[in-house]
Q: What sequence folds into this?
């Protein structure tokens, strides 16, 4: 999962249809990672493919086990600060997304209100929030 933040302090979010819940879900960009691939490299690639955005050096905020009861995989949360639109979007065949730039504080509020329900997105926002709050009086990340 990529946490892309613009110089103005907005998160680049995507609306994506999720078949399991049969509705759109507001999410951070993200995608697959090849075996042995650095999560930061994968995050930068997925961010560019899904949104056309790129930014400063990617930073790993943390990793989580999505469902350790039945899976051994990990999901990585990667911060990419100071993102701007730099390339064309390159969606996979089965992808269709709508992008929205939302102030970080508003995204955190929406998560608290239950408007963001994807558990992995909530985990990513949980890792981001202390960093964001610590810098809230300074320039955006």
A:
């Amino acid at each position: 999962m990529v946490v892309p933040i613009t110089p103005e302090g907005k998160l680049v979010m995507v609306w994506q249809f999720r078949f399991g819940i049969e509705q759109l879900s507001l999410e951070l960009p993200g995608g697959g990672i090849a075996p042995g691939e650095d999560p930061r490299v994968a995050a930068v690639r997925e961010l560019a493919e899904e949104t056309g955005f790129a930014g400063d050096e990617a930073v790993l905020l943390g990793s989580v086990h999505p469902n350790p009861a039945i899976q051994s995989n990990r999901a990585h949360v990667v911060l990419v600060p100071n993102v701007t639109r730099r390339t064309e979007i390159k969606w996979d065949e089965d992808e269709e997304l709508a992008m929205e730039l939302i102030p970080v504080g508003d995204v955190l509020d929406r998560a608290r209100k239950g408007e963001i329900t994807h558990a992995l997105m909530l985990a990513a926002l949980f890792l981001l929030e202390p960093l964001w709050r610590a810098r809230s009086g300074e320039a955006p990340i």
In short: The chain has a mean pLDDT of 91.
